[in-house]
Every structure is written in C-alpha cells, then in structure tokens.
Write a structure and sequence with these properties.
This protein has about 90 residues and is α+β, with helices and mostly antiparallel strands. The protein has helices spanning about 20-30, 60-75, 85-90; strands at about 5-15, 30-40, 45-50, 75-80. It is built from 3 helices and 4 strands, in the order βαββαβα. The protein has a 4-stranded antiparallel sheet with strand order 2-3-1-4. Helix 1 packs antiparallel against helix 2 (about 60-75).
Length: about 90
C-alpha cells in the first residue's frame, strides 16, 4: 500500500498545547504521524512532522485550512507540503 506523505512544519514562540492540538487534528482526520522531530531553540518551538494522509477522507486544502486556524490560535506558523513538492524543490 503506497503512502501519501506530507511534511508539516511549525515555528513560533513556545507555548503549551502545540503538539496536542496538531496531533489531535491529525488523529481526527485519520492522518498517521510517521515521524516527528521537535526542538526548543531559545524561546522558539520548531517541529517537523512527516505524516501519511493515505487513509484520510479530507482534502489537503481542508487540512491546510484547519492547521492554519490552529496556528492562528496558538500564534505559530504552520505549513503543510506534499512530499513530491518538497522533493522537486530540493533536487540537485
């Protein structure tokens, strides 16, 4: 079964609930977290997630809009990008 992989990046001032809010949305939309890396740099929260959207019935646009709402609420920048676009941008 082929996966539909996407990268989610989050950057902003550290605060409680960032991982919880994002992972809850992903769970509700049947999006699996394949890998996650997070770090606090000074007072900034930085996270990269690799997620599989294959089982989700939601569109990428809907997921993006919901993540943007979460980002606005938590005052962080959240971006989501399909793996194919990421690969094209970073080809040598």
């Amino acid at each position: 079964m082929e996966k539909e992989l996407l990268f989610i990046t989050v950057i902003g001032k550290d605060r409680k609930g960032i991982v919880a809010k994002i992972s809850t949305l992903l769970y509700e939309y049947d999006i699996n977290i394949e890998d996650i890396n997070q770090k606090i740099m000074d007072d900034y929260f930085v996270m990269i997630m690799l997620v599989d959207m294959k089982e989700s019935k939601q569109s990428l646009e809907r997921v993006r809009a919901e993540l943007e709402k979460i980002g606005d609420t938590l005052q962080v920048k959240i971006q989501i990008q399909h793996e194919d676009i990421f690969k094209m941008m970073h080809r040598v």
